[in-house]
């Protein structure tokens, strides 16, 4: 018999009763005594279904027997026993098997005692077995001796080591039966095709049925997102359907972090049912939960349920694309009491306007950004979303025999420039010179739609803006590219590693425009008032010079990562942008 839990003490064992902690659970004892059976007839005593007298807890009853294989016989005085023979048949393994209708219950335990003997041990010995099943290996009404069949297999097949010609009790235990079964099958089969005849004699079979010990369980854990105030329902499972439950006491502990019916939950809660609904308190990790189940005057403890706190299910909802204009994004799954902080990287592509759990992004330049929503206490955590602003454009700038990639701002040499571009996913593309100084009549701007290219000419100090428009899957898109010819300022060295010198050219011929009238410098003095350095995405990387009147400036770029930058130089009235390469 299976060892009972330490809580369930065996107080005493009386006929038919198992007393556990003052709670009485009934055992059922079925005795099939073939010694006192007087109805056995024929060469196959169970060839047709035969009711054999039995006692169940001392009360007379019957159990139906039927032959599955071979021909069980009855051996009268002095043995008064059912005989099963095992012997090869036609050089094949064969034997005898019968079944009796006994209903075995799931989770119950069974002790089966057989009083039996054998007239010969045999070499090799035959196999005697019990099997609990919902049906045997067929049926047989013939009297032709042992029949050929395969020995059954499975976890409910138990060999019984019967040996010797003296009647002896042999015990087989089935603990906490995993499934309900309707038959006890008793059989004998030879173990080889050369085994001799072996007969087993069965006088009595006693079956003791024991209900399972009362066992009650809670789930081992419950997963609660941090900051969640969603109600949680807990259920106690009566594992073996033990009867007589009279109540449940739930153990939460003091200051437990749970609400019960809208109020702080007490340390213990008593219920008449096996369920309890609790609500987590905002910002507090709730206590573990256990329960005590009462059956009569006996108590049975459950396991302990441990809440598991997980990251909140934070999600950013909104479009993956900002073709133009603005898009609003919302953080959902924000836990109670938490504050959302919005950030975007890199900068210079979109402007960000946060508003609590929402944020508005406004497209400034083409590119890709990562939008992040970060939580403050009581729950940390963050979630990010990748967003495309506009449609990225690539291309090639052919100027003076030199080919360079197409950037947002492009420095070119004086003369003719041919630009080819690619704008994936965009249709109905139009391309125009949007700036008017110098006018198109001087630049000779021409757009070639069939080859996605355009041509223009510039002289020293001139700058033009080229406007692109088109239609993408997300809607209308636009982009601007700038082209200039440096002429009023010199940058060296270029490429640079640490230090860059910027010099204003001091010839009135090169700089024909007079300085602002309120400027005290002479007309032919070209000065530097402001310097700003932008990265390739248009983000301001540094502003080393402001509100100065210099003819030469030195800036330190050692803190910049290697790459392409654009240096914007202004004298307060005129502005010029040149490309700078930082190498490492």
What number of structural domains do the residues give?
A: 5
**CATH homologous superfamily name of the largest domain?**
Galactose-binding domain-like
What helical percentage do the residues reach?
under 10%
Name of the level-1 CATH class of the largest domain: Mainly Beta
| C-alpha-based Rg, rounded | 47 Å
Helix count equals 1
Average the pLDDT over all residues and give the rounded result: 88
Which stretches are poorly predicted, pLDDT < 50 over at least 5 residues?
A: 1-24, 507-524
Task: Report on this structure.
- The structure is a single chain.
- With 584 residues, the protein is mainly beta.
- It folds into 5 domains: 10-210, Jelly Rolls; 216-310, Immunoglobulin-like; 315-387, Immunoglobulins (Immunoglobulin-like), CATH 2.60.40; 394-484, Immunoglobulins (Immunoglobulin-like); 489-582, Immunoglobulin-like (Sandwich), CATH 2.60.40.
- It has 1 helix and 52 strands.
- Strands 4, 5, 6, 7, 8, 9, 10, 11, 12, 13, 14, 15 and 16 form a 13-stranded antiparallel β-sheet that branches. Strands 38-37-40-43-42 form a 5-stranded antiparallel β-sheet, with no helix packed on it.
- A hairpin with a 2-residue loop joins strand 1 (10-14) and strand 2.
Observed structural traits:
5 domains, 52% strand, five-stranded antiparallel sheet, mainly beta, elongated, disordered N terminus, Immunoglobulin-like, Jelly Rolls, 1 helix, 584 residues, 13-stranded antiparallel sheet
């Amino acid at each position: 018999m299976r060892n009972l839990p330490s809580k369930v003490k065996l107080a005493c064992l009386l006929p038919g009763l198992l007393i556990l902690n003052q709670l009485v659970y009934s055992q059922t004892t079925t005795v099939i005594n073939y010694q006192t059976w007087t109805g056995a007839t024929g060469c196959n005593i169970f060839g047709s279904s035969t009711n054999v007298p039995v006692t169940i807890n001392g009360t007379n009853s019957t159990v139906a027997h039927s032959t599955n294989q071979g021909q069980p016989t009855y051996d009268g005085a002095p043995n008064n026993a059912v005989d099963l023979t095992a012997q090869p048949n036609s050089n094949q393994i064969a034997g005898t098997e019968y079944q009796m209708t006994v209903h075995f219950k799931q989770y119950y335990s069974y002790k089966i005692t057989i009083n039996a003997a054998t007239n010969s041990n045999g070499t090799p010995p035959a196999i005697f077995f019990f099997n609990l099943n919902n049906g045997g290996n067929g049926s047989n009404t013939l009297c032709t001796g042992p029949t050929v069949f395969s020995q059954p297999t499975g976890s409910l097949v138990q060999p019984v080591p019967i040996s010797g010609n003296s009647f002896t009790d042999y015990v087989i235990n089935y603990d906490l039966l995993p499934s309900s079964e309707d038959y006890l099958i008793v059989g004998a089969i030879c173990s080889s095709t050369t085994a001799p005849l072996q007969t087993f004699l069965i006088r009595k079979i006693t079956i003791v049925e024991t209900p399972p010990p009362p066992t009650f369980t809670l789930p081992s854990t419950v997963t609660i997102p941090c900051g969640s105030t969603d109600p949680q329902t807990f259920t106690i499972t009566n594992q073996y359907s033990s009867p007589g439950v009279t109540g449940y006491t739930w153990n939460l502990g003091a200051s437990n972090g749970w609400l019960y019916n809208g109020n702080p939950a007490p340390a213990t809660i008593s219920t008449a049912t096996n369920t309890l609904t609790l609500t987590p308190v905002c910002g507090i990790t709730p206590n573990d939960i256990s329960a005590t189940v009462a059956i009569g005057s006996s108590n049975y403890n459950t396991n302990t349920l441990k809440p598991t706190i997980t990251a909140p299910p934070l999600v950013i909802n909104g479009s993956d694309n900002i073709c133009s204009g603005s898009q609003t994004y919302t953080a959902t799954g924000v836990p109670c009491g938490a504050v959302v902080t919005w950030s975007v990287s890199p900068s210079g592509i979109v402007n960000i306007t946060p508003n609590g759990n929402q944020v508005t992004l406004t497209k400034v330049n083409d590119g890709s950004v990562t939008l992040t929503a970060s939580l403050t206490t009581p729950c940390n955590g963050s979630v990010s979303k990748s967003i495309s602003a506009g449609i990225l454009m690539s291309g090639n700038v052919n100027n003076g025999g030199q080919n360079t990639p197409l950037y947002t701002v492009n420095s070119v040499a004086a003369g003719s420039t041919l630009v080819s571009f690619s704008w994936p996913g965009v249709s109905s593309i139009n391309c125009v010179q949007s700036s008017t100084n110098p006018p198109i009549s001087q630049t000779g701007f021409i757009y070639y739609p069939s080859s996605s290219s355009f041509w223009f000419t510039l002289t020293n100090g001139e700058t033009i803006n080229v406007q692109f428009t088109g239609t993408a899957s997300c809607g209308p898109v636009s982009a601007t590219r700038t082209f200039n010819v440096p002429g009023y300022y010199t940058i060296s060295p270029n490429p640079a590693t640490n230090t860059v010198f910027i010099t204003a050219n001091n010839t009135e011929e090169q700089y024909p425009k007079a300085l602002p009238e309120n400027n005290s410098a002479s007309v032919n003095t070209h000065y530097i008032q402001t310097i700003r350095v932008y990265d390739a995405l248009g983000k301001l990387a540094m502003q080393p010079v402001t509100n100065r009147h210099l003819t030469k400036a030195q800036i330190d770029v050692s803190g910049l990562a290697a790459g392409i930058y654009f240096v914007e130089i202004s004298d307060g009235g005129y502005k010029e942008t040149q490309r700078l390469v930082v190498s490492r």
